[in-house]
Amino acid sequence: MISTRSRMAVTASSLLFAALSTIPAFAADPAAADSPVEGAGLDEIIVTAEKRPENLQQTPISISVMRSEDLVNRHVTSLLDLGDGAIPSLKIAPFYSRNSALIVNIRGIGVLSDGNQPARDQGVGVYIDGVYLGRAQGLGTALFDIQNIEVLKGPQGTLFGRNTEGGAVNIVTKKPSGEFHFNGTGGLGNFGSYKGEVHVDLPSFNNIALKLDGVIARRDPLVKNPLAGSEGFNQYDKRGLHVEALWTPTSNFNVDYSFDISKDESTSQYLNLIAPGTNRLAAAATVQPDRVRTANVGVPQRPSVGKVHGHRLTLEWQAASQITLKSISAYRELSQSQFDNGSAANSMSIPAATFNPVIGFTNFQFARDSLAQLDQHQWSQEVQAIGDIGRVKFVAGALYYREHVSDNAQAFNTNTFTNVAGSTYTTALIDPATQRIDRASHVTTKSIGAFGQATWTPDIWNDALHLTGGLRWTKDSKHGALEIVNGLLPVPRSGVPGEIALDASWTRVDPMVNMAVDLSRDIHVYGKWSTGYKSGGANSRSQEYDPFDPESVSIFEIGAKTEFFDNHARFNIAAYAGDYKNIQVDFSRPFETGGVRQTRTTLSTVNAPGKGKLRGVEAELTVNPLEGLTLSASYAYQYVRIPAAVNPYPNAAGVISTLAVPIYQTYTPEHSASGAIDYELPLNGFTIRAHLDGNYDGGYYSNATDPVYVGPGSAANVYQPRTDKAFIVNGRLAIADVDMGNSEAKISFALWTRNLFNEQHLFYKTLSPTSGLSGFFNEPRTFGGELNMRF
């Protein structure tokens, strides 16, 4: 039997062979390639995926781009707002109930389990202006003046390095122009929301261009908290300031300095109890199978506060007519508290076998409050050489990255029942300072790497053939310690309690080859093989802090990028297949102290044996059938198979199982799609702009293992539920660019809505035979109006 990967390889070979055999008849004439396209048509999209500005259509990798106008049309405040599926291959979600830390997956690769830890990384790299953001925390802060968000799909190990096995999210901000411009926006919405943005470009002085950006966004809770004086659920308050100066002392040298500072205050999502389990529920434990406006119990709740600031210094020197040298230096600090009392409704139950009808729920404590604090600072230095020598264009460079991260966590119950029935309760006003630290660790990560990539265009077939090769060498090291686990000193295998050190390092080489063919000026095909990896580390929720190795992805991809109808239609498609190795899988085990197993558990990570499989298809279509009307659609099919794995740790009875349990890839809908309609109608003195988009995903798994798995086909198995299918519609209508008489100022008025039809679905589901089915609902319909002035 021929494997899927082999069939795709044969298909790719056939496609490229056909391309090569037809080039003499169809290759673009050089003069024709330089001739302008008649009519307006679709705008050219410039990306920096290969470390230099290039046309999206001529960049031979799968990329999706959200431009600044796309973000405005969808009312995107932070990366979390892209979680509705605007880019089908990209999945963004909060880590459990915490809006302050994000899960980011591309092609189903990135985060399988808990990536919210100091010594554990995500598999999708997030970059802002060339600077890597090392932690999942802090990604929910408000976005500044964005030019493009480029989503690079598939392994980017050669040019972007570690932790890009799924891909990279490359955020590019707008640069100082050296001319005076003002762009200000203010708006109000339901749930007490408001938003303000100010972007000011100052005139250049002494060859220095300066730009200032300020943002603020706030929203009241989506679910109210009955406890007076306590915060509600799913509210936010984001604000930030960005200053950038671009100094150009000579025509071939510039210095770009950027400083940003942000504060993000948000509260946890509210976990609904959808259906009860076998446990006896208190009277206050209301089953809530639909989205609610008010929580069923009042609990202490406070915002999670994230504070981020950073510096970036980019030096760019055109050393020769075709060679540019670049240096990117950056330092960033992050402080993130994570307060989570969102599961109160799901902790008011007692196992039926132990329920005492006389005592009932009296003195039963519930509402587990989780308080976590993470502090991180990182420093990075990257140098690049970008150039063209004859028929070869190249990029080469080196990177040094260092970060220090520390975290701790507390967990205690805040509420107590005061009657037998369990319908009356008191709220314990507990000072976290008096509570024990349940978990603490620290780690210092260092990474060095060197990379090079070159594209050769041989003097044949009217320069239609492009051959690319790249290679990156990386060395990672992590040094730290697990300080506390379950409120006590860790107990290593020696049996002597004490901190457990982490001292691990890994080296890695990631290659890439790409063959691209220009069938015509507007039709480009390619075949690419590349690898990427996610760094190894250790699980700070474990007992023995065993290091685990990196996991890796190897993918072969074929694709075509086309434009037709005289530049009024664009269709891009890619198909891929590959292997997924050394997958980092979490297993729970009872906590031990003094050789005695406790009821509490720890979470350890191992590299699963065997080889996983990946395959998928991505397609994007954009059509401009009439002047002012643009239709777009995108689709992704994603298949990820992870081999079954055996839990290597003893259970509560001290027995090590030999049963291989199924592992699910999380946050990966098999089918997802997005479509949009944009219309622009210029009138006398103003322009009407309308936008409507719809986004679908077919559901996915939130957790990697089944709640109960006895064996293949067993009636006793309790399977992991999939989340609901989702279809979200967003819209915007604007009266834009209204002339202000003799003034150069233009004013725009807009109405916007997210989740127009108030569609309801669970984007997270968890099932326990005893506790029942619980989940987080998506946000209800939000809407508002905005006023923008620019000149």
List the topology elements:
Elements: H1 4-26, H2 30-34, E1 46-47, E2 54-55, E3 63-67, H3 68-73, E4 90-95, E5 98-106, E6 124-128, E7 131-132, E8 146-153, E9 167-173, E10 181-189, E11 193-205, E12 208-219, E13 236-250, E14 253-266, E15 272-276, E16 280-281, E17 304-320, E18 323-340, E19 349-350, E20 365-389, E21 392-417, E22 425-427, E23 439-456, E24 465-485, E25 500-518, E26 523-534, E27 537-538, E28 547-548, E29 551-564, E30 569-581, E31 584-593, E32 596-607, E33 611-626, E34 629-646, E35 660-663, E36 671-683, E37 686-697, E38 726-739, E39 746-754, E40 762-768, E41 772-777, E42 782-790
Parallel strand pairs: 6-9
Antiparallel strand pairs: 1-2, 3-8, 4-5, 6-7, 8-9, 10-11, 10-42, 11-12, 12-13, 13-14, 14-17, 15-41, 16-19, 17-18, 18-20, 20-21, 21-22, 21-23, 23-24, 24-25, 25-26, 26-29, 27-28, 29-30, 30-33, 31-32, 33-34, 34-35, 34-36, 36-37, 37-38, 38-39, 39-42, 40-41
Molecular structure report:
This protein has 791 residues and is mostly beta strands. The protein is 4% helix and 55% strand. It is built from 3 helices and 42 strands. The strands form 8 sheets. The chain has a 22-stranded antiparallel barrel. A 5-stranded mixed β-sheet has the order 3-8-9-6-7. The longest helix is centred in the N-terminal third of the chain and has 23 residues, at 4-26.
